[in-house]
Amino acid sequence: MLWSSLIQVAGFSRRLLEEEPAEPAWYVDGNPSWASHGDRRLLQTSATPQFTPNVTVAKDGSGDFTTISGALAKAPKKLLHGRYVIYVKEGVYEETVEVDKNTWNITMYGDGEQKTIVTGSKNFIDGVKTYHTATFAAIGDGFMAVDMAFLNTAGANKHQAVALRVQADRAIFLQCRMEAYQDTLYAHSHRQFYRDCLISGTIDFIFGDASAVFQHCILTVRRPLNNQQNIVLAQGRSVLQESTGFVIHNCRIVAIPALADAKPKFRNYLGRPWQEFSNTVIMESEIGDFIEPEGYTPWEGSFALDTLSYAEYNNKGPGADTSKRVNWAGFKVISQEEASAYTVAPFIQGDDWISKMGAPVRLGLYNE
């Protein structure tokens, strides 16, 4: 994010001074090694759409291109009708990728989030502004990614290091993995939909000012450095009239074992206000016991505590008890009617475009 790395926030500095802790291997047989049976079932419930590719990317030379960037360079510009489909075969693609603003209606799919991996390591400490650290950036409208992983491997001691930045309107990420530490997913702007995704990080690891719905996803909090605390969401609405916000719907917010085992050592929060009118809703989701009872933490002093809009509805799990949540004017437990306004159909007009792009979606609440 575009703030000073020296700002002191809530008792800790964004300057990371210690060595990155070791973590166990995350995946076994294509699933997180730490995931419960329920987690694995959650990630695998949706049927994968079937696509016919226009071009194929393969590192071994068996396709039309050996790089994703090469395929995008030859994609049609400002495509208005139909979709241009790029199949990215299994492999680790070490490249910085951008779907530019004139490249519309691209579908990009891989062989699975453990097989088709886009990775990079640009980071703030090495002199790169947060915006430009993204390994993969989706800007052109109507972008859809399926069965892929987007990683930034810079590590916790490199500060802000974005794995995925999304500025595309009507963007969909289905069965994808986004993995880094600080600032993993920059949900920058416009309407975005994430379904059956695994997103992991430490500080503000989902941030930005998009109108974004995360449905049926697993948000995984990693063990930070010893001088840090974790924050899942940092939404950046700066004008009250904006219709932006983050909606966490029917997701699980969990800690990896390396963090859960060290629970007393680290403080973990659902969110904090990046901008004055930060807007976040968590509903019909499961929240783990590692989340602090107050739920949220200030950005700096009393900034935005009266103007933010944080809401929860019908969550479950040991971290879902709202009786000890923050006593801020902007926080409330909302009703079913109020929660309905944050579902896919009204909030991002998803009934008009998500199913047409082939993604599974729940348009309303699950308990309706």
UniProtKB/TrEMBL annotation:
Keyword ATP-binding: no
Top-level class of the enzyme under EC nomenclature: hydrolase
GO molecular function: pectinesterase activity
Name of one Pfam family that matches: Pectinesterase
Keywords: Aspartyl esterase, Hydrolase
Active site per UniProt: 204
This enzyme's EC code(s): 3.1.1.11
Gene Ontology biological process terms in this record: cell wall modification; pectin catabolic process
Residue stretches making up the Pectinesterase catalytic domain: 54-351
InterPro entries referenced in this protein's UniProt entry, alphabetically: Pectin_lyas_fold, Pectin_lyase_fold/virulence, Pectinesterase_Asp_AS, Pectinesterase_cat
PROSITE patterns reported for this sequence: PECTINESTERASE_2
Involved pathway(s): Glycan metabolism; pectin degradation; 2-dehydro-3-deoxy-D-gluconate from pectin: step 1/5
Catalytic activity annotation: [(1->4)-alpha-D-galacturonosyl methyl ester](n) + n H2O = [(1->4)-alpha-D-galacturonosyl](n) + n methanol + n H(+)
Name the UniProt record assigns to this protein: Pectinesterase
Organism listed in the record: Musa troglodytarum (fe'i banana)
